[in-house]
Amino acid sequence: MNLEKMFKPDSVAVIGASNQKGKVGYLVIDNMVSDGYKGTIYPINPKSDEIQGIKAYKSIKDVPEKVDLVVMSIPAAFVNETVKECGESGVENMVIISAGFKEVGGKGIELEEELKSLVEEYEINLIGPNSLGTSDSHTPLNSSFAQCMAPEGNVAFLSQSGAMMVAVIDWSLTSGIGFSKLISLGNKAGVPEIELMKYLADDPETSVVIAYLESIADDEDFIRSMRKISMKKPFIILKSGSSSAGAEAASSHTGALAGSDLAFDTAFDQSGLIRAETMRELFDLGLGFSKAPLPKGDKVAIITNAGGGGVVTVDAMEKAGLELFQFDNDTKKRLRDCIPDEGSVNNPIDVLGDAPAKRYEETLDIVLENDDVDSLVIMICPTASAQPEETAEAILDAKKRVDKPIIVVNMGGPTFESANKVLNENGVPTYVFPETAIHVLKEMTDYSKILERNYEECVDNISDIDKNKVSEIFKKVKDSGRCALLGSEAYAVAEAYGISAAPIKLAESPEEAGKLAEEMEFPVVLKIASDKILHKSDIGGVKVGIETKEEAEKTFNEIIENAKKAHPDITPDGVEVQKMMPSGKEVLVGMIRDKQFGPMIAFGMGGIYVNLIEDVSFKLAKGLTCDEIDQQISSTKVATLLEGYRGEAPSDINEVKEAIKRVAKLTLDFPEISELDVNPIFVYEEGSSALDVKITLD
Amino acid sequence: MNLEKMFKPDSVAVIGASNQKGKVGYLVIDNMVSDGYKGTIYPINPKSDEIQGIKAYKSIKDVPEKVDLVVMSIPAAFVNETVKECGESGVENMVIISAGFKEVGGKGIELEEELKSLVEEYEINLIGPNSLGTSDSHTPLNSSFAQCMAPEGNVAFLSQSGAMMVAVIDWSLTSGIGFSKLISLGNKAGVPEIELMKYLADDPETSVVIAYLESIADDEDFIRSMRKISMKKPFIILKSGSSSAGAEAASSHTGALAGSDLAFDTAFDQSGLIRAETMRELFDLGLGFSKAPLPKGDKVAIITNAGGGGVVTVDAMEKAGLELFQFDNDTKKRLRDCIPDEGSVNNPIDVLGDAPAKRYEETLDIVLENDDVDSLVIMICPTASAQPEETAEAILDAKKRVDKPIIVVNMGGPTFESANKVLNENGVPTYVFPETAIHVLKEMTDYSKILERNYEECVDNISDIDKNKVSEIFKKVKDSGRCALLGSEAYAVAEAYGISAAPIKLAESPEEAGKLAEEMEFPVVLKIASDKILHKSDIGGVKVGIETKEEAEKTFNEIIENAKKAHPDITPDGVEVQKMMPSGKEVLVGMIRDKQFGPMIAFGMGGIYVNLIEDVSFKLAKGLTCDEIDQQISSTKVATLLEGYRGEAPSDINEVKEAIKRVAKLTLDFPEISELDVNPIFVYEEGSSALDVKITLD
Fold first, then answer.
1. What are the chain B neighbours of A383 within 8 Å (beta carbons)?
2. What pLDDT sits at residue B251?
3. Are B414 and B404 in contact (CB under 8 A)?
4. Where in chain A are the domains?
5. Is the pLDDT at B257 greater than 80, yes or no?
6. How many whole angstroms separate alpha carbon B589 and alpha carbon B601?
7. CA–CA distance, A323 with B56 (Å, rounded to integer)
8. pLDDT value at residue B254
9. A408 in contact with B at a CB cutoff of 8 Å?
10. pLDDT score of B631 more than 80
11. pLDDT at res. A256
């Protein structure tokens, strides 16, 4: 998808252009002109020959050349026919500001469906409808109807809420952040946000992308696509509708089908996207990432003129997992030459409340000679001696010499207005509070690690599986009108996919039970086989520790009797014979299927208290990498048990990895599996054995 | 302690007053005069007859009347002799700005110790040294040397960092918060912050107290004192030095001995103090609490002109556990009359981007007729139609009619400057981002619940205990040169305090072992008794399932043999005989002793994996209430097990409560207990039994 002319058009037609102040069609032309657009503007208005002093045309068809971009603001009822005209005139890029589509329901939904077909038919790149418009501060082109233009910069902002975009423009006027492009997505009937993100990933004028999204369009390969772009630059996204109530509000707002929040969290994490939790965080991160280079490691030096600020900063650093750089004695000695005795030459360096700019400058010089300092936080309280502007100059001077993040905390308000401005304009992010600076630094450090990720996948290349076998079993289950697999069927599925499980087979007669038991080796367990009987133990449907063939035959009959007594209306499928396994460390591997992202694999502590203990970690199966499986395991508490807790021998973690990988493969290969639970798996010093495999089909 | 004249003095002497601009002694006088102090000022300076046009005196002794307050800013070396003179002149209140005391170490520590003795001797209320000074905007008296005065209001701010105080004054100039008193604590050599907090609790000019503290002075009755004041008004505290690294920075900064952070968290929680996690939160909460009344419940209505803002707000609400108020059909119908069809009349109410002030006003009128709406969040994005000032007026008008919190989110920057000002000045807090508003509302709702707390204590009134018995046992243990109690000794302690435990007794001969086993009833366990042998099972020092007297006698000898073989150098105390108990739900009750707050009682899931599962909740024993014990239990996962998980019969939770209560009592009664662990306790459907009681003395 070529979106170049969407943001850098040589000509723009504004359909619905107006001479009437306050009207959207007026504002769009006015913004284009006053914000310095240098291409040709074609106002389109059936009733005027001139709009705001520019020659106007009655219809797009009258325009003498093929225009690169159409911006449309006319009543919804006329939009589709006009889109058709545009298509016939060869228009390739379009922003529809008009509202009255999906967001109003009823007839609006129909209109939007029709619009979708039209833009598909004419191959038009569409942003909107119900968009606030877009702007590109480098072209420059402001074809939005926002009342003011955000400051120029290198942050692209995508927003599914137009109102939020105007809020951000207003707020950005004093916050130091600058934008390359502002894109109001509206109803997203055309270009999917993922395509816009791919475009922005390659946009040389954009260093950071921030986005407010209420939904993310389905994409077969979401994780793989996002991995590619997030390796190019940071994408920071506030995905709202994360709560169940919020998802309701989101769906009534834009009709978006909200995926579950856990799935989004997991997808973002596996994709290398950065998820902001709050609006403030979105912009704080946008500011930091857009100004400062990435840190190479997690060692931070702090310079402050207030001990208290240092303490708060260190608290925040410890919570964030960043490290205080330790200065060597030589450095400390040199620092002491410029810092009075009451100050601290240990990190955080306290230059004292009476520090003038000069003392900051000297301290900075010494600190920055330590190449192993990965980043620097400089804090200034507005004491009587503080020199915010002069200190800012000293910081900018130091910044020229190093390629590491320097973040400034100017603790206060009006005193720092001009210092903040000069710092922000010259590539140094500033914050009011130290905790914000540390949080931003932490996210930047994490992103540095994302860039080093190895996305080698490990699910697709499994060869020793028998897909046909599983298809057959599923067919049989469906043919018999069931959704839930019997234990013996589920075992056969596990076996076909190389998942170690305790053998379990179905006997339809006492003799068969005896024979199967003998083949498996004693002791065995016998269980009533029926997907309709839920509490099997309670009705005498389970007998453990069976040691002989005769006992197995006898028990078969007993179990059938018990089942008939308890459920005279149910005909059991027989009795299942399962080999009794020695106990091991109990883990579970499970799957829930997300509507949008597909199978999510769960791993955690197994046993009967799984829902109570909640020691579980999730990963999406699609694109799952070997590193992610390792990380999924190690992020649980049961990993500590598997590694050998308190002197115990370690368990066979490779078996756990195999189980995760193969469950992922199975659930990717068979979308008809709606639920799957392997719990417990006994993990031994060598090998493992799944005791209970539950599979449910759609 | 009477601090009235500290903040409302009729006369103030400034020792170290100066005519030299920029000097602290100049700034203090200048601030007092320019900020309108109406009492008498006595500048003290040995070399001048007049300071800034006011008659000056050579010494405090020359002042013709007894002054209410002395503010001192002279070199540290001269402070103590001057304090003495003040004391002799009857001065009762003093602020020492001079630095060069504890914070510089060495000689400074000595000076501060001497200063402490002097103020004690002369009964002087001292704030400082190393203070920035104090100010009271209602007196008005600004005796600090800060360069500007914070806006007047009803928030008192206590700060252990002077630099942070100037930062806050600066920041407050544009943030809408107003202050009644600013108190820079400095080194806290005189009036403890707890006394200041008690004073502020009764100060009619203060509605909210916010504090930045790096340490909290020891107070025998911290929790009980704080409960009293936190019932009078909200106290919001940022306690820094929470990290281990932070604690180091705090200790090098003010020489404060940092308590463990868990203890602080627990103490704050049990006291009803509100703990802020970041500086921003401290001031966001200060603003909200100081402007809006407390909500009576957790039902919130939201009015917004941006659907996206509504979604983000609902997300935040769900995370915070607040509830979206549901409007009835009649209300919705009336809302529909003033909101166009595309808007939403469900909560969050979307008045649409084109909403003028009038539409907000009409919507507000209808919403506020619902008495069950506990609080209201109003959000405005700066769309072309937004009318921030007019909407602010409508909100202020509505506010007059109801006594419930109305919080405004003006999403943007410069557009809202004047609207924010008028709202803040008239009792409506404003924030830029919706998540902040919701967080503040959540904390206000929580504080409403704190005010309803029942602090009935339940530890002190336990009567059926034998304190002397325990004293005897501890004496015996100490006399034998041990710290750790034997199992049989610990059992005796538990028995004396009514803690149900499995009987365990010491046998010194095979015959005694047989006799004890018989008395206890079989089966029993035999264990080697020695505080020096740690891994008793590994050396054959434990034998379970002993069923007869003869077996017990024989086993005694075996165990002694095994122990001698493994540890020829250790003489065991004998063999302990313990009754084997049926297994039950496993819980633990333990105690760690905090240096500052005393015993902290742990409760949680028991067993060998306690450190892995980490299902544990802590409470401080001092002042422990019955409600807190209930809450301690219910906040763990094991509580779900005890209540009867998945159809199991419930366990005897009363036994658990008794165990917690009695362990609390025991560890309060005996400060020499440094560690205590009861793990596991088997809890049955009726009764319980502690299997292993470990007690260590200092």
1. 163, 166
2. 43
3. no
4. 4-288, 293-450, 503-579, 585-697
5. no
6. 7
7. 53
8. 31
9. no
10. yes
11. 34
Between chains, do B341 and A309 touch, taking CB under 8 Å as contact?
A: no
**pLDDT recorded at residue A257:** 32
Q: How far is CA A81 from the centre of its chain?
A: 38
- State yes or no: pLDDT of B456 exceeds 50: yes
Q: Which of B311, B390, B407, B330 is nearest to B355 (CA)?
A: B390
- Are residues A197 and A209 in contact, defined by beta-carbon separation less than 8 angstroms? yes
A242 touches chain B (CB under 8 A): yes
Of B311, B350, B435, the CB nearest to A214: B311
**Adjacency order of strands within the sheet including A524-529:** A504-507, A574-579, A524-529, A542-546
B308 reaches A (C-beta below 8 A):
yes
Helix or strand (DSSP H, E) at A309: helix A307-320
Higher pLDDT, B63 or B461: B63
Span B112-123, mean pLDDT?
Answer: 97
The CATH fold assigned to A503-579 is: Dna Ligase; domain 1 (3.30.1490)
Q: How far is CA B42 from the centre of its chain?
A: 40
- Determine the 3-state secondary structure of B241 from DSSP: coil
Cβ neighbours of residue B681 under 8 Å, at least 6 residues apart? Answer: B500, B586, B587, B588, B589, B606, B656, B659, B688, B689, B690, B691
Which residues of chain A lie closer than 8 angstroms to B171, CB-CB? 411-413, 432
- Return mean pLDDT, chain B: 93
> What pLDDT, in 10s, does the model give residues B652-691?
999 999 999 999 999 999 999 998 999 999 999 999 999 9
Which of A173, A244, A436 lies at the smallest CB-CB distance from B318?
Answer: A244
A414, A444 contact by CB (below 8 A): no
What are the residues facing A619 on neighbouring strands? Answer: A601
Which of the listed CATH numbers 3.30.830.10, 3.40.50.261, 1.10.260.40, 3.40.50.2300 matches domain B4-288?
Answer: 3.40.50.261
Q: For position A247, what pLDDT does the model report?
A: 52
- From chain B residues 110-169, the ones with a CB under 8 A of any chain A CB are 145, 147, 159-164, 166-169
CB contact under 8 A, A245 and B214: no
Query: Are the beta carbons of B155 and B282 closer than 8 angstroms?
Result: no
Residues B92, B124 contacting (CB under 8 angstroms): yes
Q: What is the mean pLDDT of residues B347-353?
A: 93
Closest Cα in chain A to B342: A104
| Percentage with pLDDT > 70 across chain B | 97
A324/B245 touch (CB, cutoff 8 Å), yes or no: yes
**CA–CA gap between residue A433 and residue B439 (Å, rounded):** 18
Give ipTM to 2 decimals.
0.92
Q: What is the CATH number of domain B293-450?
A: 3.40.50.261
Residue stretches of chain A with pLDDT short of 70: 242-260
Per-residue pLDDT tens digits for A652-684: 999 999 999 999 999 999 999 998 999 999 999
Record: contact A243-B22, CB cut-off 8 A: no
Q: Quote the CA–CA distance of B170 and B148 in Å, as a whole number.
A: 7
Q: How many CB pairs under 8 A join A and B?
A: 260
Q: Is A343 on the interface with B (CB under 8 A)?
A: no
Residue B171 has pLDDT above 90, yes or no: no
- Whether the Cβ atoms of residue B305 and residue B349 lie closer than 8 Å to each other: no
Backbone angles phi, psi at A485, to 5 degrees: -80, 145
Superfamily of domain A585-697: ATP-grasp fold, B domain (3.30.470.20)
**Structure-token pair, residue A203:** 């946009």
CA distance A281 to A266: 19
Q: Do A249 and B640 touch (CB under 8 A)?
A: no
- For the cut 60, the answer to whether the pLDDT of residue B117 exceeds it is yes
Candidate from A164, A311, A416 with C-beta closest to B308: A164
On the question of a common fold for B4-288 and B293-450, the answer reads: yes
